[in-house]
Write a structure and sequence with these properties.
disordered C terminus, about 325 residues, globular
Length: about 325
């Protein structure tokens, strides 16, 4: 697992450096912010695990509790995973920030026209305005929290092929979305008019969180900035891809919770169009990326598991 994740992170780092070299765009990744945040999470999580393990061992009347807990802490891959997640999101911001300055927003009109063709001459955001606006606006901003929560919880689980599949697929989903944005570089309907493409989406309803967030992203874009969480990119939808990944992981662990997870995914998918963040094709691409990456990792680990001894897969 560590080898695969390290390779994915390294590939993105090289891609970011190459894009900067060819485009001339310069970015200052906020490594310190992300790594300090990850380090704080590591301390809190390991402290929580230590307390949990000690409680378990105390109830079991185990004598050498200290030695057992120290051995578990030493073998834990939680610090590596948390630091890798921090690096992943930092690289995502780097690649998103570089995109408009290296290739420009060239695909917005193409994606808008393709959406209208698919939906029989209508921009699809008009078809989902029946959705409750407050629910959609509020649910949509929880994408990062839900994804990060899942990646915070997974390392707390015992090591297993299922857990490794989930974590590797996360890094593949995010990295694939970060790289594929260069294939159809676009900003999304919410920025369509600001980019000078016309007033086609001028009737998009104003939603509080969407307005605040889009203004933040636009200000950072105009300043050539490197604010945390900034960067404008529509295709493919990482929001949708992330929500689909969360739903797939929840389904692999609990069939009972699967309907809730996929309902949340549905809110994010429809909300991305309702709020004007994405074209419908962005969401479809995000869903395909998430499912394909999860399936690819599952098949790969399935083959590896058949070649491993009966004790199971390990790093």
């Amino acid at each position: 697992m560590k080898v695969a994740v390290s390779a994915i992170i390294a590939a993105q780092f090289v891609a970011a450096l190459l894009i900067e070299a060819f485009s001339g765009f310069r970015y200052s990744p906020p490594w310190l912010f992300y790594l300090l945040g990850a380090s704080g999470m590591i301390v809190l999580s390991l402290a929580g695990l230590t307390f949990f393990w000690l409680s378990q061992l105390e109830r079991a009347k185990v004598m050498n509790k200290r030695e057992i807990v120290l051995a578990r802490l030493k073998s834990s891959d939680l610090p590596f995973i948390y630091w890798a997640v921090a690096a992943q999101f930092c690289l995502l911001g780097w690649l998103k920030a570089a995109m408009p300055f290296s290739v420009g927003f060239q695909a917005d009109q193409l994606l808008a026209d393709a959406d209208a063709w698919i939906f029989f001459g209508t921009d699809p955001w008009r078809l989902v305005q029946w959705l409750p606006p407050t629910l959609i606006d509020t649910a949509y901003v929880t994408w990062a929290q839900s994804t990060l929560f899942m990646m915070a919880v997974l390392p707390l689980f015992p090591k297993s092929p299922k857990r490794d599949r989930a974590m590797i697929s996360f890094f593949l989903v995010v990295s694939a979305s970060a790289i594929l944005q260069y294939a159809l570089p676009s900003a999304g309907p919410i920025f369509y008019e600001r980019l000078g493409f016309g007033d086609r989406f001028a009737d998009l309803p104003s939603r509080p969180w969407a307005t605040i967030t889009s203004d933040y992203l636009w200000a950072n874009y105009l300043d050539n900035g490197s604010r945390v969480g900034a960067g404008i990119s529509a295709f493919p939808s990482l929001h949708v891809a992330g929500a689909a990944w969360v739903a797939a992981v929840v389904t692999s662990y609990s069939r009972k919770l699967a309907p809730v997870a996929w309902a949340y995914f549905g809110l994010i998918l429809l909300g991305s169009v309702h709020l004007g963040w994405h074209y419908a094709l962005d969401g479809i691409a995000g869903l395909v990326i998430a499912l394909v990456m999860y399936r690819v990792v599952s098949l790969s680990h399935g083959r590896e598991a058949r070649l491993q001894p009966a004790s199971g897969f390990s790093d």
